[in-house]
UniProtKB/TrEMBL annotation:
PANTHER family: LIPASE 5 (PTHR34853:SF1), PTHR34853
Signal peptide: none
Source organism phylogeny: Bacteria, Bacillati, Actinomycetota, Actinomycetes, Mycobacteriales
Record-linked Pfam families: LIP
Regions of compositional bias (Low complexity) in chain numbering: 1-21
Residue segments, region Disordered: 1-22
Top-level taxon in the UniProt lineage: Bacteria
InterPro entries: AB_hydrolase_fold, Lipase_secreted
Stated name of the protein: Lipase family protein
Length: 451
């Protein structure tokens, strides 16, 4: 039994299970406390487990088998730390039936622990405005395929959104923990897929880049990065002073925790009022930030201009460090991006893909003309899952390269997928069980797809 494992950890939770009225936020919850001998454990070692109950927006209880695993991982500087992943099976799933594992990296995009998936997805969570709550239907659709799912808190206990490499370490160690958790019925040869969108797409990119070196024993067969930011420095400049400037503000609030030189620079160069804004950003969920920080321009809070601040060596080091794409993923990868995305610039993702291709990666890059940022998460879900299903079943996923389509919603496979997605969402709204297919899906024959 793992360190801290509760005796009933292997029993699936039910809607009538006894529970506290509200889950504790992570900094108040003893489950998240690191054991004193943390350094003695290997990366991915399971330290503590518990059953949990999930809910749509914290309110509608979900009939999904769910556990949380506290596991050992590391930070940017290879210092041991703990993180939590929420691991899921379809309701009533037989753990003796072989199934793949998908690690779904949520778009945490926040410092506040109320944004962590391990908190925001739980029944009773007071996390209005946390993006993982919007992604639970997508996770449910993956479960309805019969897959096991790991949802890591890839920002760590400090909510270090945007920091280089750390999301990859935490995601990969979360996979290790899931494979070693007996109730899931997985093993060392289980095929694994990576998937994330927006901030979760960026985390997925880091995991894909680091996998061969950091976790070579994992059988990762494919990765999907939806709208994976591409270049946070470019996003800072573009979003500064706009309606969406809150995203840049909360990222700066997170980065100063991981990069001491950046923190010192901010203390020296910006007015106390802006430091106060950063402190506010640390305590709010993502969508709470948007109206509060809309139109904030750092030029008004700095002793110099934003452009001059970005040119400082301390800032350039951080911005260069957090830009992904230098190391080629060794597994096939799908990237999707909206051409007219209002939050993530298509040019930044184009450049990200070009860096991967130049480094020798096998990338299929599909650009969608019609979708804005958040809608593409849902519009692209059937296409993404079809691609992942083919990879997990070791089927051909089509050619690599870049192409632009009107919409990922078009195509016969995608139309069927949207109907299935709608059915799953309806079951979730009605608090009905999300179950695996009655029988395994037969190998697909090649069919014409949207891209």
């Amino acid at each position: 039994m793992s360190v801290g494992t509760t005796p009933d950890a292997a029993r699936p939770a039910t809607a009538s299970s006894a529970r506290a009225p509200w889950p504790l936020i992570p900094e108040q919850d003893p489950f998240y406390a690191a054991p004193p001998d943390l350094g003695r454990h290997a990366p991915g070692a399971v330290l503590r487990t518990r059953r949990v109950e999930l809910a749509l927006f914290g309110v509608v209880p979900q009939r999904i088998s769910a556990w949380q695993l506290l596991y050992r991982t590391c930070d940017l500087n290879d210092v041991p730390e703990v993180a939590v992943t929420t691991v899921l099976l379809p309701w009533g799933a037989d753990p003796t039936v072989p199934r793949p594992l998908v690690s779904f990296q949520c778009a945490i995009d926040g410092v506040s622990s109320r944004c962590f998936p391990s908190y925001a997805l739980r029944r009773g969570a007071r996390a209005l405005g946390a993006i993982p709550q919007l992604e639970l239907p997508v996770i449910g659709a993956a479960l309805a395929r019969g897959w096991a799912v790991s949802v890591p808190d890839h920002g760590g206990m400090s909510g270090q959104f945007g920091v280089a490499r750390e999301p990859g370490y935490r995601s990969l160690d979360g996979i290790r923990a899931a494979l070693n958790f007996t109730p899931l019925g997985l093993g060392p040869t289980t095929p694994v897929g990576l998937w994330g969108y927006s901030g979760g797409g960026l985390a997925t990119a880091w995991a894909a880049e680091l996998a061969a070196e950091y976790a070579p024993e994992l059988t990762i067969v494919g990765a999907v990065a939806g709208s994976p930011v591409g270049d946070l420095a470019s996003a800072f400049i573009r979003l500064n002073g706009t309606f969406l400037s809150g995203f840049a503000t909360v990222c700066v609030a997170a980065l100063r925790r991981a990069y001491p030189a950046l923190d010192r620079l901010l203390i020296d160069e910006v007015h106390p009022e802006f430091l106060g804004l950063l402190a506010q950003a640390e305590s709010r969920t993502t969508f709470e930030l948007i109206p509060r920080f809309a139109g904030k321009n750092i030029d008004k809070y700095s002793r110099t201009t934003f452009s001059e601040l970005l040119a400082r060596p301390e800032m350039r080091y951080v911005l260069d460090d957090i830009r992904p794409g230098v190391q080629a993923p060794t597994m096939p990868m799908l990237v999707i991006q909206g051409v007219n995305d209002e939050l993530i610039a298509v040019a930044d993702v184009d450049a990200h893909v070009e860096r991967y291709v130049a480094a020798g990666a096998a990338i299929r890059y599909v650009r969608d003309r019609l979708s804005l940022h958040l809608p593409l998460l849902y519009i692209g879900t059937p296409f993404t899952m079809n691609w992942l299903a083919d990879r997990l079943a070791q089927r051909d996923t089509g050619p690599t390269g870049t192409n632009t389509v009107w919409s990922l919603a078009f195509g016969k496979r995608e139309a069927v997928g949207h109907l299935r997605f709608a059915k799953v969402f309806g079951r979730m709204l009605a608090a009905r069980p999300i179950t695996a297919p009655v029988r395994p899906t037969a190998p697909a024959t090649p069919r014409r797809s949207v891209a």
